[in-house]
Give the backbone structure.
Amino acid sequence: MKKLFSIIAVMICIQVSAQFEAGSQRLHLGVGIGSGYVGSGLKMGVPPVHASYEYGISDKIGVGGLIGYTSASADLAFFGEAKYSYLIIGARGNYHFLNTSEYDVYAGAMLGFNRATVKFENDGGLFGIEPEAGGGLVFGGFVGGRYNITEKFTAFAELGYSIAWVSVGVCLNLN
């Protein structure tokens, strides 16, 4: 934990030329660790995977979208296994409060829609009833950071409430 705080302190002290600016385009591909969609008693199926796009409307603000998927299952004693899947599609907005030639630290919010489905192992469903797909509005808030590996390739990490508690992955600079 001390190492993380040291890295953040160094990032705050370094101010060079901005890597995120108006017109910037970024494509994130990530995988999550932990998720609010996999509750107590459920087994993780597909971990949270996601892709997001961000367009810089200024040197500090970026907007875009996210699509993500995760699944889980539960053993229902005498009724077999229930398999849950979640498809999340949403809009994101980020505020970049630290931009350097190597680092980009931001905070953001997401608003979207979750399409949830459940399937039962037996064809008759639970008590002979097969549930319909459901879903609803989802929201999230997160902080994140990117570290430039090359001009076009960046590693990123986000922490917060979105498709996963922690997300890591790669980011491609599309400019």
